[in-house]
Amino acid sequence: MKAIGIMSGTSLDGVDVVLCEINGVDEETQVKELAFKTFKFERKLKSKLEEILEEKKADLASICSINFELGEFFAECCLKLCQAYGINSTELAFIASHGQTIYHISENSDSSIKSTLQLGESALIAERCGCQVISNFRSRDMAVGGQGAPLVPYSEYILYKNKQKSYGFQNIGGIGNITIIPKNAQKEQVFAFDTGPGNMMINQVTKILYDTEYDNAGRFAAKGKLIKPLQEELMGHPYLKTEPPKSTGREMFGDDYTNRLLEKYFSHKKEDLVATFTWFTAYCIYYSYEQFIKEKTIIDELVVGGGGAHNLTLLTWIKKLLPTINVLTQEEIGMSSDSKEAVAFVILGNQTYHRRPSNLPSVTGARKNVILGQITYP
């Protein structure tokens, strides 16, 4: 059967939409990518999102409206991809939409309880596309004590479990997250967590200093030198020492935090600032391996995916910091770095469609396996 996966990440670089053929369930799942495209946010919609996410205009009316605006945009993206492939959206078994994360609270505090909010109204997608929509995947895991993230590791286990090698799968989107699949692993042996910032801080620095959305291929960073005091301040961030299971997001490594650091170190050369923030993403990956992974599993290969896989300077730093591990990109193992997470949600949606669980308690800290998501019928 055919299905679509939608992923809109924390970096706001666009909405990834993938059309797949998917059959089977659980460990018998077989998935084939048929078509993929990243749809850039319209300028007005992106500006609204940025204002809400940075809490500059997080009023109730704006949040209410953006939920429907995103739903319309997601539906439009799905319709365009179907049209390009030559099928009608009513032929789809389902659309699996992660939604746009507006806020994620991974732990209880004095003022808040563990919770999450992803927007992109599923009723609109179902109405416009004429098929089932599966959405709101994180909440069910949180209802049984999990952090609601990361969820992609289930798909990586299905696609890449191997009897001969231990793999690490490092996704570098807005946030970095790693999945560890020991050789010949059972589901219960898979573990994963967010390593820290991915492209989020690098993109913000590049936007402020160079007035461009991202550091293309890491060219700005390649010209720079590391700023030692900034390195030391970044290395002291408390998230690094937090034990897994753990997850993070814009709340911790967003524009406010990045801008404060930029103001403090603004006298340094632009390329040095970009270089140091790029190094920090790689350092978070290295630190995570040294502190939380190596004692459990020695990784044979680290496969890097997401937008960060296109940053050659970032890849160079990862290889330099982890010299004993073979570092590859998704493309080098025959898969796409860009479509990876959207494909993951096709797999998660397929589990829900068949009333099967797809969270991994060993990853999220949940008390039990549960069926993720909510279904909206057309």
From TrEMBL:
Native source species: Facklamia miroungae
CDD domains linked to this entry: ASKHA_NBD_ANMK
Keyword Transferase: yes
GO molecular function: ATP binding; kinase activity; phosphotransferase activity, alcohol group as acceptor
List of residues binding ATP: 9-16
Functional pathway: Cell wall biogenesis; peptidoglycan recycling; Amino-sugar metabolism; 1,6-anhydro-N-acetylmuramate degradation
EC number: 2.7.1.170
Protein name, entry field: Anhydro-N-acetylmuramic acid kinase
